[in-house]
Design goal:
By secondary structure, the protein is mainly β. It contains 3 helices and 14 strands. 13% of the residues lie in helices and 43% in strands. The strands form 3 sheets. It has a 6-stranded antiparallel sheet with strand order 1-2-5-13-7-11. Helix 2 runs antiparallel to helix 3. The longest helix has 7 residues, at 4-10.
Length: 165
């Protein structure tokens, strides 16, 4: 059985500020100029970046937001639940995994500007996914939240923010 420690070590993963572990695997050699990007980007961006991301049971990927679209691809381990809230405050829950008959998917799109978090659905396990961000990821575009700010903005989702912030 391949363990979470195996992937963390062999992929040379490091702790991620939102929770879990990551390793950047790709950064496009092509850039977009600031003027060609949507409003809110402060400088040019690579067209795309990609990481491996591993989350262990009992950990959470804390509520955060990116200025870019993010695409998740499931690779290995247990299913992972991703919860996101769109610009209008509507909540969505998607499960990435290998069982489409259980409404699991190998792929998920999280639109730019959505607030989202994740957790592994099974105990004593982990999930290994890839995340592609376009325009490419830069930490200056990564926004973590204080739960009180989110509760004030989206009071009907207070229970989520208590858990995922």
């Amino acid at each position: 059985m391949i363990t979470k420690e195996y992937w963390i070590q062999h992929l040379d993963m490091k702790p991620h500020p939102e929770g879990g572990f990551f390793k950047e695997m790709f950064r496009s050699g092509i850039s977009a100029k600031k003027d060609d990007l949507p409003i809110g980007f402060k400088s040019e961006r690579r067209l795309a970046t990609s990481i491996y991301y591993l989350l262990r049971s009992g950990e959470i990927s804390k509520m955060h937001r990116l200025k870019s679209d993010e695409l998740w691809y499931f690779h290995f381990g247990s299913p992972i639940k991703v919860i996101f809230i769109d610009h209008e405050g509507k909540k969505f829950t998607k499960i990435l995994g290998l069982n489409p008959e259980k409404a699991e998917s190998l792929f998920l799109h999280i639109p730019a500007g959505n607030i989202f978090a994740a957790e592994v659905t099974e105990t004593d396990s982990y999930s290994l996914v890839s995340c592609v961000v376009t325009p490419g990821f830069e930490f200056e575009d990564f926004e973590m939240f204080d739960k009180d700010d989110l509760i004030q903005a989206y009071p009907k989702h207070a229970d989520l923010f208590e858990k995922y912030c």
